[in-house]
Amino acid sequence: MQYRFNILTFLLLSVLAMASCSRKTAPAGSETGSGKFRREKGKASYYADKFDGRKTASGEIFRQNKLTAAHRTLPFGTMVTVKNLANGKTVTVRVNDRGPFVSGRIIDLSRAAANAIDIVKQGVASVEISYR
């Protein structure tokens, strides 16, 4: 009986030791240990009205009146602040789709988000995005 107790104790301590040595890594776009914002500059566009009501890559239904966006790599649910470099206006959106798939563009915005930073008329604008 003592032998089994020693084996179980050894196994438990081994598991605890290995677990304490593992390192958790944060996915891209999540809060880092320093809590600093990551930034990207590029072009933003917005979705055409024909996508309203369709499923996004996350499985959510796309709505033009919501503050959402598409990004190629950020995890779904990441909150991103988008700043229009021409006028300084900002909007915070939630990533719920993949895209844009046009060279040079870093984010696709819903119409509501595009309205908030005044890019609907020109369709594409230079922006800086920031996220944790």
Automatic annotation (TrEMBL):
InterPro entries, per the entry: RlpA, RlpA-like_DPBB, RlpA-like_sf, RplA
GO cellular component, one term: plasma membrane
Superkingdom per UniProt: Bacteria
Taxonomic classification: Bacteria, Pseudomonadati, Bacteroidota, Chitinophagia, Chitinophagales
Topology in membrane: Lipid-anchor
SUPFAM superfamilies, per the entry: Barwin-like endoglucanases (SSF50685)
Signal peptide: 1-19
Task performed by this protein: Lytic transglycosylase with a strong preference for naked glycan strands that lack stem peptides.
Protein family membership: Belongs to the RlpA family.
Keyword entries, A-Z: Cell membrane, Cell wall biogenesis/degradation, Lipoprotein, Lyase, Membrane, Palmitate, Signal
Single GO biological process annotation from the record: peptidoglycan metabolic process
Record EC number: 4.2.2.-
Subcellular location(s) per record: Cell membrane
GO terms for MF: lytic endotransglycosylase activity
Name assigned to this protein: Probable endolytic peptidoglycan transglycosylase RlpA
Residue ranges constituting the RlpA-like protein double-psi beta-barrel domain according to the UniProt record: 40-129
